[in-house]
Design goal:
This protein is of the alpha+beta class. The chain folds into 2 domains: 12-90, no CATH class; 105-217, Cytidine Deaminase, domain 2, CATH 3.40.140.10. It has 9 helices and 5 strands; from the N terminus they run αααααααββαβαββ. It has helices spanning 12-19, 26-34, 41-54, 57-62, 65-70, 75-97, 106-117, 154-163, 184-198, and strands at 124-130, 136-144, 168-174, 203-211, 214-217. Helix 9 (184-198) links the parallel strand 3 and strand 4 (203-211). The chain is globular, with a radius of gyration of 20 Å.
């Protein structure tokens, strides 16, 4: 009787390429980062050339995936290592925010959101869901749009806040243009979401706009 050949389990690198960083465990991400030996002089020279080409580390991380996969010195393995570095940093910051009042850690909240949103070429709308002690329950990317805009549905925001049993939320989105100041549409959306959540006794603590290395806080500017 013939036997069926079993398809081997995908390695972490293949799963990252197909399913993104969320598909990997903490151990798999760490293993991917630690698999390389100490860099040689040639490797350091290649890294310096890459920084010169892309301008900064931020420019390198923000470059399109297709470009990085085709760039000598990066390729598939290098791109996966870069993504693993970003994801381990995000998870480390999220773990800290789960154990402290985020209102006492605005810089960490900003760093977490910058790691999540600053390098995307598309506008992304995300939410941090918080408990009654302002500790992080979870963070979600709810909507993804184009280079200049994304459509946000208040009903979906309310539904996810209820499902998460959130006492409050922090709204966030990025401006790929690099301009951090809110548009009139951003202001109107913030007010609409604030009113919708207010009826359910869910507070909007802030709305942060991430634009490259710049950030704009509605709360800090007295706009909430």
């Amino acid at each position: 009787m013939p036997t069926l050949a079993l398809r081997p389990a995908q390695c972490p690198l293949e799963r990252l390429l197909e399913g993104g960083t969320a598909s990997l465990s903490d151990a798999e991400l760490l293993a991917m980062l630690l698999r390389n030996r100490a860099p040689s002089k040639a490797a350091i020279a290649r890294a310096a050339a890459l920084l010169a080409r892309f301008g900064t580390l931020g420019g390198l991380f923000a470059a399109p995936r297709t470009l990085l996969l085709e760039t000598p010195g990066i390729g598939r393995n290098g791109w996966c290592s870069l993504q693993a570095a970003l994801e381990t940093s995000r998870r480390s910051l999220a773990e800290e925010l789960r154990h402290r009042d985020v209102l006492n850690s605005p810089e960490q909240v900003g760093r977490y959101l910058a790691l999540s949103l600053a390098h995307s070429p598309n506008e992304i709308f995300a939410i941090l869901f918080l408990d009654s002690r302002n500790r992080l329950i979870g963070a979600e990317e709810l909507f993804r749009g184009t280079l200049t805009q994304t459509v946000v549905y208040p009903r979906e925001v309310v539904r996810r806040a209820l499902e998460r049993n959130a006492a409050s939320v922090i709204l966030a989105h990025n401006h790929p243009s690099g301009i951090a100041e809110p548009s009139q549409a951003d202001r109107q959306l913030t007010e609409a979401l604030k009113r919708a959540l207010q009826y359910l006794d869910i507070a909007v603590l802030d709305h942060l706009i991430i634009a490259g290395g710049r950030q704009f806080s509605f709360a800090a500017q007295g706009l909430l």
